């Protein structure tokens, strides 16, 4: 019997457009390395981020970040952190309602 190719044995991982993968790498760097609070969600398993805040935080920390129009175009295709839509969110860390893009945490997509 032929040995299956390694790619055939891996679980199917959604393919991210490069713009989306880069965006999430920058968000992870901002939150984990720089301690920037970006997730406004009060619910476990849900990411609620304001794109303008992400772009500004990247600029403040000297990280390259794509423009808002590019982000808006590509983030709808986010697969690993599935795009769920956008709406106003009662912020977990600001005393106000913030317009956010919503994504599912990867482990919540089983």
How would you briefly describe this protein structure?
The protein has 110 residues and is an alpha+beta fold.
Helix content: 25-40%
Spatial extent as radius of gyration = 16 Å
Structural class: alpha+beta
Assembly annotation: single chain
Which outline best applies?
Answer: globular
- Please mark out the parts with pLDDT under 50 across 5 or more consecutive residues, or reply none: none
SSE order: HHEHHEE
Strand order of the largest sheet: 1-3-2
**What's the number of extended β-strand segments?**
3
Q: What count of helical segments does DSSP give?
A: 4
Distance between the termini: 32 Å
Mean model confidence by pLDDT: 90
* Biggest sheet architecture: 3 strands, antiparallel
Strand proportion, as a percent range, falls in: 15-25%
Structure, explained:
The protein has helices spanning 6-9, 18-33, 51-60, 68-74; strands spanning 46-49, 83-90, 97-104. The chain is of the alpha+beta class. The protein has a three-stranded antiparallel beta sheet. The two termini are 32 Å apart. The model has no long low-confidence stretch (mean pLDDT 90).
Keywords:
110 residues; 18% strand; 4 helices; three-stranded antiparallel sheet
Fold blueprint:
Blueprint: H1 6-9, H2 18-33, E1 46-49, H3 51-60, H4 68-74, E2 83-90, E3 97-104
Antiparallel strand pairs: 1-3, 2-3
């Amino acid at each position: 019997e032929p040995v299956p190719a390694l790619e055939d044995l891996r679980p199917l991982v959604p393919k991210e457009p490069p713009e989306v993968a880069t965006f999430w790498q920058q968000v992870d760097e901002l939150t984990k390395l720089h301690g920037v609070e970006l997730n406004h969600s009060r619910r476990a398993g849900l990411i609620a981020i304001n794109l303008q805040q992400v772009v500004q935080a990247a600029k403040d920390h000297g990280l390259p970040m794509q423009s808002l129009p590019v982000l808006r175009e590509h983030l709808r295709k986010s697969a690993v952190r599935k795009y769920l839509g956008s709406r106003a969110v009662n912020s977990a860390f600001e005393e106000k309602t913030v317009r956010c893009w919503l994504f599912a945490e990867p482990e919540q997509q089983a």
